[in-house]
Amino acid sequence: MNDHLKQRLVGAVVLVALAVIFVPMLLQGHKRSGIPMFGSNVPSKPDLKAGEIDIPLQVPSPAPAAAATAIEQVAKPAPAARPAPKAAAPAAVPAVPSAPAQTLKPAVPVSTTPPAEAWAVQVGSFGEVHNAMKLRDSLRAKGYPAYVEQIRVSHGASYRVRVGPMLARGEAVTLQGKLEAKLHMRGIVVHQP
Length: 193
Known about the structure:
Blueprint: H1 3-28, E1 55-57, H2 65-75, E2 102-104, E3 118-126, H3 129-141, E4 146-153, E5 156-166, H4 169-183, E6 188-192
Antiparallel strand pairs: 1-2, 3-5, 3-6, 4-5
């Protein structure tokens, strides 16, 4: 094949590829999609508000042996052989001071700030929003928390379908394995800023 014919074929392939990409965009016009123009439909990070918890320590006061002996002596009747003394005052039971309630602090301080990162499993990237929404709806119907994220690329917009977010990367890796085993979808674990 000569060089002139090769150049003409390459040029024709490039023109057809450009027509396939741009003609649908021109014919669709300005359709309103399910993707918000500003912001995102990514679920927000879970609100993890935790703080220190004061748990009062209540120590029961042990009854001293001397107080128990004094109570037993008062409760015993006098022997019948001896005459009972007149109006003997009962022995007073000494008051035992109770220990003040102490508060314990957890050995490990509890963080009050939510984690700064989240993870998701990206299962697809589409040039058409309706294809991304179809996959998202299919995953949601199966119980997975799927969402679509719109990004700007050099030739327009791209729509990523992700499942998550997860707080730990290990959770996202586990979810990636479940998606591959159950739905035969090979996703990638991505960091969610």
